[in-house]
Design the sequence.
């Protein structure tokens, strides 16, 4: 499974963004990995195709920032998915 193009960190917003919508599966995969106790280095390698040995700071930033956004989605962001779209 290929991850959509990603930024080093998801946008900081109190609202659901297009970036979030494109990365919902990525967020689910990160949450599953965290729940299973997977090492973050393995998760970032599998999910994002990054190699922590090459650039550990960037790899950890990508992992941690996207996992934090995924957790935000489970606590708050999901509500935006339930609202009807503004047209």
Sequence:
């Amino acid at each position: 499974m290929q991850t959509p193009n990603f930024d080093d960190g998801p946008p900081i917003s109190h609202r659901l963004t297009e970036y979030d919508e494109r990365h919902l599966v990525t967020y689910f995969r990160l949450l599953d990995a965290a729940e299973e106790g997977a090492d973050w280095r393995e998760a970032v390698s599998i999910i994002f195709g990054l190699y922590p040995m090459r650039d550990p700071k960037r790899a950890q930033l990508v992992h941690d920032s996207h996992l934090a956004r995924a957790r935000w989605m489970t606590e708050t962001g999901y509500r935006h998915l339930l609202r009807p779209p503004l047209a």
